[in-house]
Amino acid sequence: MSQPRPDEFKPPPECPVFEPSWEEFRDPFAFINKIRPIAEKTGICKVRPPPGWQPPFACDVDKLHFVPRIQRLNELEAQTRVKLNFLDQIAKFWDLQGCALKIPHVERKILDLYKLNKLVADEGGFDLVCLDRQWTKIALQMGFAPGKAVGSHLRGHYEKILYPYNLFQSGANLLCVQKPIQPVESTGSTDSMDTKDTTLQDQAQRTAAQKPDIGPAARRAKRMKCEAVCVKMEPGEPGDNKPNLRRRMGSFVAKLEPEKEIPILVKQEPVESKEPIIEAVTVKSRYKKIIPPLLASPVDLVVCLVCGSGGDEERLLLCDGCDDSYHTFCLIPPLPDIPKGDWRCPKCLAQECNKPHEAFGFEQAYRDYSLRAFGQMADAFKSDYFNMPVHMVPTELVEKEFWRLVGAIEEDVTVEYGADIASKEFGSGFPIPNGKFKVSPADEKYLKCGWNLNNLAMMNPSVLTHVTADICGMTLPWLYVGMCFSSFCWHIEDHWSYSINYLHWGEPKTWYGAPGFAAEQLEEVMRKLAPELFESQPDLLHQLVTIMNPNTLMAHGVPIYRTNQCAGEFVITFPRAYHSGFNQGFNFAEAVNFCTVDWMPLGRQCVDHYRMLRRYNVFSHDEMVCNMASKASALDVVLASAVHKDMVIMLREEQKTREKVKKMGMLLTKQAKYDHLQDDERQCARCRTTCYLSAVTCSCSPGVLVCLHHIKDLCSCPITNYTLNLRYTLDELFPMMSAVKRRAELYDDWASLVTETLEAKLEKKKGLPVFRSLLAQSESKLFPDNDLLRRLRLVTQDGEKCSSVAQQLLNGKRQTRYRVGSGKSFSQLSVEELSSFVRQLYNLSCSLPQAPMLKELLNRIEDFQQHSEKVLADQLPSVAEIQTLLDVSFDFDVELPELPCLRVRLEQARWLEGAQQAGAQPTSLTLETMRRLIDQGVGLAPHPSVEKAMARLQELLTVSEHWEDKASSLLKARPPHSIETLSAAAEKTSGIPAYLPNCRLLKDTVRRAREWLQEAEELQVVGCTPMMDSLSDTVLRGQAIQVHLEPLDRLESLMVEVQDWRESAATTFLQRDSTLTLLEVLCPRCEVGNVGSPKRKAKKGKESPKSNKKKTPRLNTLSDVEKALSETRDSTSAMATLEELRVREMEVFSHLRAANESKLLPTADCMDLKVCVCQKAPMGAMLQCELCRNAFHSVCVRDPSDSCETQPWLCPQCQRSEKPPLNKAVSLLASLRRIGVRLPEGDALHYLVERTVNWQHRAQEISQYFNLPELEERPGTPPTLTRWASGSHEAHNDTQAPCLTPEWNRTSHTQTVFYTEQRCIPLQGLSHDLEELMVEGLLLQVRLPEVQSLFHALLDRASSQHTNRCMSPPQDEAPDCDKHMQFNSQGTNLPLNQDGVNGVREAMIGSEKKAKRHLEREGLNAERRVKDKKHSHKRQKMNKKRPASTSSSPRSDFSQSDDSDEEMAVCPAERCQLPEGDEVDWVQCDGSCNQWFHQVCVGVTAEMAEKEDYICVRCTLNDGHMRK
Fold first, then answer.
1. In Å, how far are 19, 1098, 1099, 1500 from 1094, measured between CA atoms?
2. β-pairing verdict for 414-422 and 478-482
3. Using one digit for the tens of pLDDT, what is the confidence trace for 623-650?
4. In the structure, how many helices (H) and strands (E) does the chain have?
5. 837 and 829 in contact (C-beta within 8 Å)?
6. Residue-wise DSSP of 225-245
7. Pick from 1316, 1313, 1311: nearest CA to 1297
8. What pLDDT score was predicted for residue 393?
9. Closest Cα to residue 598, out of 795, 792, 789?
10. Taking CA 902 as the corner, what is the angle to CA 897 and CA 904, rounded to the nearest 5 degrees?
11. Given Cys at both, which of 66, 640, 661, 1309 links 743, Cβ 3.0 to 4.6 Å?
């Protein structure tokens, strides 16, 4: 294999490659229509199916047999074939002259005789070139280096080889052929005899001279090879009457005998050889023609036809064709020597060389191949040629070698190509329904797939579906089996249709394509470069036998694109797109044609083109259009529009030609069903067009017809004998066109509107809504995706994008702005780009409302730039002005070069403004602010104003830091400086215009010191007693002031004295480990707990109407008390507050005592009670507190160190202090007065002393009123400890056994489980005053002998009362004295006079009436009163069942007086206190009796009644019996 040439093949650019998605791949026509705007610009494109689309190969490999075509590569290329044809003519010319042609070498290269001949002809011919000495120029044009005298060599070769041929071509050599007119001297017999002899002689010589002509391939082998090589040779043509074996592609010519490889030795000639190159082949004597004399003749009849002389017989030549004689010196040009081979005279030479050339075509191979055998041959050829495995040969190498071989005259490589194999005969490579190939279920989808080439051509979008006949290669796929270098030449598809090629498997197929708009340009270039080929074959490019190097076409301006089609890929060619290519190796492909709507105009144009070339039609275009028009109602609107446009052209032409025929005088007309005839039976005899609408026939020529364009070519008969055959009359055609028009108008109207809208100018432009509506209309009416719609969509999309960008620019939205350091975005437009964009808006096909606004925006931007330049030129621009410009710039979404400068100047202006504002407001100018300003100023761009302000700030900062440090040291000095020193320093700092914290603190310290000194003086004014809180606050504030204050020491000593007094008072009053504070012990109690069961829910019982009196806010906690005492201005107010607290304390303890007493009433089961600090049932030895009346286990509260029962026993909660003697309290109060400070504990102690004294006075008065013994301290009486016996109701001695409540004596318990260890004052019959006096005495936190005396006196009274009661007669016979007996607080029965008794009764009756009236006001109904009566009777019955020994209180006797309605208003409590007043609170029992009780009588507070249930004692006992 030779090395690549310097001008080796350069691959053209790649065509588009599309990779559709599955969605796009679903509809092939929609996808092809989608890619057409891109792909038709290159003529061809490649489509890669989605991954996974792999149809099975359905062709039967074993049954596929075919005869391939033989392709000689150097005969394929047009220019190479022209050269070869020229050399064939030269070789034939010299061969007929008896000489063998051998092409010489010049500069070690084979001389290109064709180029040399053409260049000499272009320069004016041999004579002119010699005259002008242009041989050196021609040598340079042929590529030879100058300066080597190549021109003279070229002249010699031209003169010896080409000059005689050119003289022959010009006819100059025929000028010598003029026979002289000889006188008639011989007789007739002689002439006839001579003539007969001559005829016999000629026949004999012609018989002897007839030899097989040497074929062109053999001649080329002889003249081209420089060394012995083995090439394939064609057999010689035995005679002129045999057809040329090179035929058009697709035709089959039988071979008489196989080709043989004939080794031919070619003589190597020197480059500079001057010897004649025409050598005689055989030695033959031509001096005289010896003819056996048939008759005696005295003279020789052989004479020269030029000079008429028979002399110089040794120079006389006899023609081997016609036996004419010529002198060598009479020929033009004269022959120097006698030819050694067969020689033809000029007449025979002209006759032989002027025979018409046969059309070039491919020969069919002599061998029938199977697919397997062809593959083995193909792989062996490629492997041997490249000397490497077939799969390792690069495609680029194969491509360059192919084009080198195509253009090489001296190399003759022959390959075979299995092309145009009918799939109908051998089966398609794609699976088809009901085919021989069994399709698996997984591959059934490929049977109906649109990309299956068996389906594609006949799908609805293809107009070929309206062609009735099956057209092999168009509607039926063709198969192609290729080998390395096998090629398909430049061609366009039949009727300029689409084609699609699928490579099933094998090595790639290389394609070259030119777009459809360059078809005529490509044809023109090929005609220009190879005119000789088109002269003999006008439709050469339709024969698929000619190729031309793409680089040559590209050099002449033809756009060429290439691609490598691999297995599993499609290649699509577009209408009138020339394409060619070759195979890289053994492969199998399949192809088919299809036509879409956009092809229709091209299809009609192609028919006219075929008529001009006299090329037959594959199908009738008019027939297809009429078939579609007959089904107008079923056509797609776009197809109907295309059909209508085509019919308009068709009918206009048909109407015109028919009128022309009638004017010519044709009279006969008949209807002809041409659609029932085969295409070859209705072809025009002249242009070979398939007739359908009309044709002309004549009776003289049956079976012959012509189209209306070639009537004159039918026959010589008069035109009146002709018959006009019509398939449809015009009256039939126009309604068909109207039906199609109606169908197409819908689309045409839309298309015309779209065209008008797209081509509108200036103010006639439409807005985007119009474009959107047109698009929506196309989608709703399913208009096709054609060029118009795509253009409309593209314009709309451009308008939408421009509108969006314009609106974004107008709104100043920075949606795509990514701020970086300078704030510039990556997508901003420059001002120049914005200006260009505005021009683009005005150049759009649509009108945008944003265009004028954007123009205005551009004007504003220009104004902004001018204003910015002016501001930047100012020395001190204002911040507001710069900021305004920057704010305005945010509305411009464009890149402004002024913005960085404005931002720098804005920073400087802001800094200066900030420095000025800070200096104008010294109160906010801190050291940090000054440092920050200085740091910011350092980072600014240099400017004089900035530097000046920096200097001022630095000076101020230095002074400020000095005084800050000095003020800090003054304030931190120990001992503190005097106020005079600090005042002097503060005066000096007042002149610094800055905010200095330490200096301000220094001034504030001086101010606070002066204010404190003034307060201290006010506290020390004579006659003023300061409060402890004020004094403590003053001392604390003085200690916090970092100044030396003289009064502070005196006040601190006073505080120490107060603290000492507190500690002394706490020691005196507080118990060891007490949790109470001194104030809590000294004040009346404000928090008394344990007054009721926490489990009771709120239920407000019967209550009287509330009055509108406002209650005084109460002191609920100790902190409230302390706060109230601290806020009092003097002791009087403090005493009033404590008095209010005392009243509340007495009230609360009254309720608490009543509640505890009610809790200890007898129940069904004493184990249900919760008493003591342990909250357990009473058990064993018990103690009862004299103050709160609660019960406690002796083991829980008894202290072994307690003395005997000489004083009242108080529980741990009631025993709050040590209760020192009164004189100690008075002594503490006197010492506090000496100190001269008021404090809450002092006020509380003062009130305690006064309260104690007041109690003593009141105790003396009450004792005198009730005739009590003198209240003084006396020894206590030891307790009487009596255990209760089961079932016993009698006392063991004269004294009543101590118990928790008398109610237990009236129960029916058979056994009790606890007893009391001490005597307790009974509350039954005790006077309210005595009880209150005793309670308050026990509440006093000082020890008084009067309290102990009163306690023993009341105990003694209770004992004597109990003794008298036990000795009295039964209840029903009780004397009147018992009825008139009243219990006082000591339990002593005091006799009352009759007035007193009546007063008591009247008071009780009045109370009952008041209660009754109260119930009536509440609106109780009769049913409830009846119910209450029943309960009252039931209670009476229960009381009657009690033992006679059980005594009841007067309260119970009073509650059982009668069954009248007055009973409803009586409290049934055993110890009813008969409360009076505007407000009396009642509570109803939640047990079974539903009786109403006074809340104060049963120990229930208002809050307890709201939140808890109340069950009386009787219901508790009854429920206990029921449970048992």
1. 87, 10, 14, 12
2. antiparallel
3. 999 988 888 877 888 888 889 899 999 9
4. 49, 36
5. yes
6. -SS-B--EEPPPP--TTSPPS
7. 1316
8. 93
9. 789
10. 110
11. 640
Question: Under a CB-based contact definition with an 8 Å cutoff, are residues 495 and 587 in contact?
Answer: no
Q: What is the largest CA-CA distance in the chain?
A: 225
Determine contact, residues 590/509, Cβ cutoff 8 Å: no
Q: What are phi and psi of 830, to 5 degrees?
A: -80, 170
Who contacts 380 (Cβ-Cβ below 8 Å, separation ≥6)?
A: none
Q: What are phi and psi of 926, to 5 degrees?
A: -90, 170
DSSP 3-state of 608: helix
Q: For residues 1298 and 1418, is the Cβ–Cβ distance under 8 A? A: no
Give CA–CA dist 385/401, Å, rounded: 11
Per DSSP, what are the bridge partners of residue 422?
A: 478
According to DSSP, the β-strands at 722-726 and 668-671 are: parallel
- At residue 120's C-alpha, the angle toward residues 118 and 126, to 5°, is 135
Give buried/exposed letters for 1326-1356 (b at 16+ CB in 10 A, else e): bbeebbbbbbbbbbbbbbbebbbbbbbbbbb
Contact assessment for residue 215 and residue 234, using Cβ atoms and an 8 Å cutoff:
yes
Lowest mean pLDDT of 261-270, 402-411, 866-875, 1498-1507, name the range: 261-270
How much is the average pLDDT of 1111-1132?
75
Which residues, at least 6 apart from 1287, have a Cβ–Cβ distance to it below 8 Å? 1310
Task: Give helix 997-1019 / helix 1047-1069 axis angle, nearest 10°.
Answer: 60
- Residue 1334 has, within 13 A of its CA and on its CB side, a CA count of 32
Segment 674-732, tens digit of pLDDT: 878 888 888 999 888 999 999 999 988 888 999 999 888 888 898 888 999 999 988 88
Q: Helix, strand or coil for residue 738?
A: helix
Distance CA 994, CA 924 (A): 7
Which residues are bridge partners to 722 per DSSP? 698
Can you tell me which residue has the tokens 């004020």? 1030
Q: Which residues touch 1449 (CB under 8 Å, ≥6 apart)?
A: 1302, 1324, 1325, 1470, 1471
Distance of CA 195 to CAs 188, 189, 198, 200, 449, Å? 10, 10, 5, 9, 81
Sheet with 17-18: list strands edge to edge. Answer: 17-18, 44-47, 570-573, 498-506, 587-594, 478-482, 414-422, 69-72, 363-364
Q: How far apart are CA 1315 and CA 1130, in angstroms?
A: 51
- How many whole angstroms separate alpha carbon 1487 and alpha carbon 1516? 8
Q: Which amino acid is at 281?
A: V
Tally of CB atoms within 10 A around 1461: 14
Specify the residue for token string 């009287």: 1104
Q: Give me the phi and psi of 479, to 5 degrees please.
A: -105, 150
- 696's torsion region: left (phi>0), alpha (psi -120 to 50) or beta? beta
Sign of CA dihedral 1503, 1505, 1510, 1514: positive
- Contact between 1471 and 1498 under an 8 Å Cβ cutoff? The reply is no
135 vs 133: CA distance, rounded Å: 6
How buried is residue 762: exposed, middle or buried, by Cβ count under 10 Å (0-12/13-18/19+)?
exposed
Question: Which residues, listed in sequence order, are joined to residue 370 by a DSSP beta bridge?
Answer: 65
Report which secondary-structure segment, H or E, holds 900.
Answer: helix 898-920
Q: Kindly tell me the sign of the dihedral angle through the C-alpha atoms of 1115, 1118, 1120, 1121.
A: positive
The reported pTM is: 0.46
387: its two tokens: 């000397």
Residues 390/382, Cβ–Cβ less than 8 Å? yes
DSSP for 132-189 reads HT-HHHHHHHTTPPTTS-HHHHHHHHIIIIIHHHHHHHHTGGGGG---------S-HH
SS3 content of the chain, % helix, strand, coil (to 5): 50, 10, 40
Q: Which two tokens stand for residue 1342?
A: 């000082």
